[in-house]
Write a structure and sequence with these properties.
Layout: H1 7-25, H2 32-39, H3 46-49, H4 54-79, H5 84-96, H6 103-110, H7 116-143, H8 152-165, H9 178-191
């Protein structure tokens, strides 16, 4: 049976398959043959969609992923009640509704495996699309007097890492949803552990 999809539909299937594999295994562990097998096409056919090869495909997948996260986080924050707890819940809910980005692996494994200029571009995109929306949420809460004078960059990175780490909890070990766990951690983050 011949594939009846349009070139743009076929390209989206390639991007989706590559995104799944890169998310699961990381850049270095995925080959173009793996991606072709996931899509159900011949390895050589991938070059029609990505003439620049695996690194070009990785860059496109990651840039698309970062843009989706930026839009999703921006929308989640805008739609939440304008107070820090609700906005941080919305951020956590958005992040946990998406496949994990695994920023730690990206920094320590994926980025060193690609051209330095590409690695720098993705690092900057991670900052602008994922950290800065959280930083701005915290800065606005600080201006409203809801939170004390935190280092919003440190706190934003910590919150992102904390929420992403919930993917490491095996599904069979969950006693509550990852969203509920994230909300509990956010409450602890906002209220502290010490008795008042």
């Amino acid at each position: 049976m011949q594939d009846q999809s349009t070139p743009s539909e076929a390209r989206e299937r390639v991007l989706d398959a590559a995104e799944r594999l890169f998310a699961r295994r990381g850049y270095a562990a995925v080959t173009l043959r793996d991606i072709a097998a996931e899509v159900g096409i011949r390895h050589t056919s991938l070059y029609h969609h990505v003439p620049g090869g695996k690194e070009e495909l990785f860059m496109e997948v990651m840039e698309r992923n970062f843009r989706r996260h930026q839009q999703g986080l921006t929308n989640a924050i805008a739609q939440a009640h304008p107070e820090v707890q609700a906005q941080l819940y919305a951020i956590a809910d958005w992040l946990l509704s998406q496949p994990p980005m695994d920023i730690v692996r990206l920094n320590y494994s994926d980025l060193p495996s690609i051209e330095p200029a590409h690695a720098l571009r993705l690092s900057e995109m991670a900052l602008h699309t994922m950290i800065l929306p959280i930083m701005e949420t915290l800065a606005q809460a600080q201006r409203r007097g809801e939170i004390q004078n935190p280092d919003v960059g440190l706190v934003a990175g910590g919150l992102l890492g904390m929420i992403e780490s919930l993917y490491a909890v095996p599904t069979e070990a969950l006693v509550q949803s990852r969203q509920e766990m994230a909300h509990h951690l956010i409450d602890t983050f906002l209220n502290g552990l010490r008795r008042h």
